[in-house]
Specification:
Chain lengths: 396, 107, 166
């Protein structure tokens, strides 16, 4: 089963391994079994009665602490709907899903070694690899801007994370104009990407930056206009209700999801989101066969890792917005908590966003701009006007 | 607690900076920056007065200040687009965007 | 007295406005302008006017700042990117004028009772929609015409130039 012990080092390793598994499984399995039998068999020792700190009371105390105000916001910001959850879920878990998914479609195996199951820890390993690599700042770059760019991009992604609600109560911020604010904040990214191309002071990043600028500016307008129909139907700009039971985009879908009423809007939003994320088939700014890595070319180590983090976070955000606007957000049958419904739907949308990567070629820049400025814009306007007419006729 | 005067003072500072830029700079883009800063000073005043001062008839809030600022923002965007187009054309014709050098229209 | 958020955003707004005009490298100037516009947007948030703030961010930073930065990179040339120093007298005159205006306005403000007004009565964005679609609808239409005219004008300006180049 495992290799024979030949050296003292192997012996120590084996001992430590046994200790590790015992320590892991004793609390997880042994204690519940012991207490499960405790009531029936009248076992002699109650460990909880011996302990000075009662585990259950301590847990209750912790939960209370998390629900009081300064810690509640801090917890929301840093842990659950906030940064850590998004980083682990989108970058590490969905990043792994994307690699395996693409590999399976192309009849490869994908990452196999890191982690026990199917290389599930591969992205953790990559994260630590990037963390400990050297940060190289090339000669001739504009150092201040160059270093500030990844953090600015991450700040934009963080501001967007705060606006996506996971349930009627699980969110970080819920301004009264949430639906527009999301797109106002998304509008920062062309500025930052253009600056990234300029600050690198190199031709591939600059070309990538210009392409990204054209693409992001062209696809942002259909992206916003495709949601006007959903906003008209729900009569609200809130993503989550401000007061319990108040109007919001998600609660307006309790009867029927907007993807049924707004199929055109959903399609335009999905295509626009793919372009905003610079994913294949719209990955012209990073086209690796022409521009090395586009505007990310000169970045190394964790600065590059920050780009990956920001990109996957934005993918989560746009998938989350698609869920919120068209798939009924957290709505779902009762026993499953709303957050789980939201995450399930978002995961499905993210996988749908990954699907084109393995099957589609990259489009040309003129095709891309024509599709954005002519077709998508016309479709989103058509969707908007049809919705307005239908609503003013009093049908919906 | 912020009072109305705080916002009006910030607006006055921005306006003074804008006037300084208009008076000293000769680069067309810097002039555009100065104009944008002054427009923003005016917008800030609009919103500040509109939010703090109630309508004369009743304590009913009014959105007039915000409405005018929305119009102003749209106008400023149009203005910036035209000015930048002119700057690009002037640069292609004269290889320069220094406004004191653009004298071909002078008699 | 003003709260710390306001003071911080005031420093950002005014500081980046000065950077926008005084930075040696004009790209930094454009970044400074974007910072100043963002500062004004946060001041709008502090004024309980989120709708205007959102449009300030979307239009000014999403469109105007990007357009300016793009133009700066398009027409950037070493010769004037590092600007010629303005002569000392005109610089002094400019600073004096700016300071005089600011101080005059500040004294005008201090003389009035504006410091005693601390109560906002914010209007909902629904009100803005009502105003735009009823009483001020003609303004909106004229504005749409102006926007269309400016877009056509800007396109014409750059297109004529392209044909001349051939």
């Amino acid at each position: 089963m495992s290799k024979p012990i030949t050296t003292f080092e192997d012996f120590i390793k084996r001992i430590l391994k046994v200790v590790f598994w015992v320590l892991l499984f004793l609390p997880l399995i042994g204690v519940p079994i012991y207490y499960g039998l405790y009531g029936y068999l009248h076992l002699p020792i109650d460990f909880f009665a011996l302990a000075t700190v009662k585990p259950l009371e301590f847990l209750a105390f912790q939960i209370n602490l998390i629900n009081t105000e300064p810690f509640k916001t801090l917890f929301a910001l840093t842990v659950f709907p906030g940064f850590t959850f998004v980083a682990v879920y989108s970058t590490i878990f969905m990043g792994w899903v994307e690699r395996k998914f693409t590999a399976k479609i192309q009849l490869r195996t994908g990452p196999m070694y890191a982690g026990k199951v199917e290389g599930i820890a591969q992205n953790f390993a990559d994260f630590f690899k990037l963390l400990f690599k050297e940060i190289i700042i090339p000669n001739g770059v504009d150092t201040a801007t160059f270093v500030a760019i990844p953090f600015a991009l991450m700040a934009v992604a963080g501001a967007l994370i705060a606006l996506v609600p996971l349930s009627p109560t699980t969110y970080i911020a819920n301004p009264s104009v949430g639906a527009i604010l999301v797109f106002a904040v998304l509008g920062f990214s062309p500025l930052i990407v253009l600056l990234a191309g300029w600050a690198s002071n190199s031709k591939y990043p600059f070309l990538g930056g210009l392409r990204a600028l054209h693409q992001l500016v062209a696809y942002e307008i259909p992206l916003i206009l495709s949601l006007v129909g959903a906003v008209i139907l729900s009569g609200s700009l809130n993503l989550a209700p401000l007061v319990p039971g108040g109007p919001s985009i998600v609660t307006a879908q309790s009867g029927i999801w907007f993807i049924v009423l707004q199929p055109l809007g959903a399609i335009v939003f999905f295509v626009g989101a793919l372009a905003e994320l610079e994913r294949i088939p719209f990955d012209l700014p990073e086209a690796d066969s022409e521009l090395v890595a586009g505007w990310q070319t000169e970045y190394t180590s964790m600065l590059f890792g920050t780009f990956q983090l920001a990109n996957f976070s934005r993918m989560y955000i746009l998938a989350g917005l698609f869920t919120t606007f068209f798939l009924g957000g957290w709505l779902g049958p009762a026993p499953v908590p709303p957050e789980v419904w939201f995450i399930l739907k978002t995961t499905a949308v993210m996988i749908a966003m990954m699907l084109p990567r393995s099957v589609m070629p990259r489009v040309r820049i003129d095709q891309l701009l024509r599709a954005g400025w002519v077709k998508l814009l016309a479709l989103s306007f058509a969707n908007m006007f049809v919705t307005m007419v239908i609503v003013s006729l009093g049908v919906a | 607690m912020n009072s109305l005067a705080d916002f009006v003072l910030v607006s006055a500072m921005l306006f003074g900076i804008g006037i300084y830029g208009l008076a000293t700079k000769r680069n067309a883009l810097r002039l555009l920056f100065a104009v944008e800063i002054m427009i923003n000073a005016a917008n800030l005043n609009f919103v500040a007065f509109g939010q703090f001062l109630p309508f004369a008839q009743a304590a009913q809030p009014s959105a007039l200040g915000q409405t005018f600022v929305l119009f102003s923002i749209a106008l400023a965007a149009a203005e910036a687009a035209v000015i930048l187009a002119i700057v690009v054309v002037a640069y292609r014709l004269h290889q320069d965007v220094d406004v004191s050098e653009l004298k071909s229209m002078q008699g | 007295m003003a709260d710390p958020t306001f003071i911080a955003m005031m420093v950002v707004t005014v500081g980046s406005a000065i950077v926008a005009l005084e930075a040696k490298e004009i790209v930094y100037g454009a970044i400074g302008l974007a910072g100043s516009l963002f500062g004004v947007a946060t001041l709008f948030f502090l004024l309980d006017a989120p709708y205007v703030a959102v449009f300030q961010i979307a239009v000014y930073i999403g469109a105007v700042a990007v357009l300016i930065l793009f133009t700066v990179m398009l027409v950037r040339q070493e010769r004037w990117a590092k600007e010629l120093p303005t002569n000392a007298l005109s610089k002094f005159a400019g600073i004096a004028t700016g300071l005089a205006v600011t101080i005059a306005l500040a004294f005008a403000v201090l003389d009035t009772g504006l410091f005693s007004i601390t109560q906002t009565n914010p209007a909902d964005f629904v009100k803005i929609g009502e105003l735009i679609s009823t009483g001020y609808a003609p303004v909106l239409e004229v504005l749409a015409l102006i926007l269309a005219a400016s877009v056509v004008g800007a396109l014409t300006l750059s297109r004529v130039d392209k044909e001349e180049k051939k």
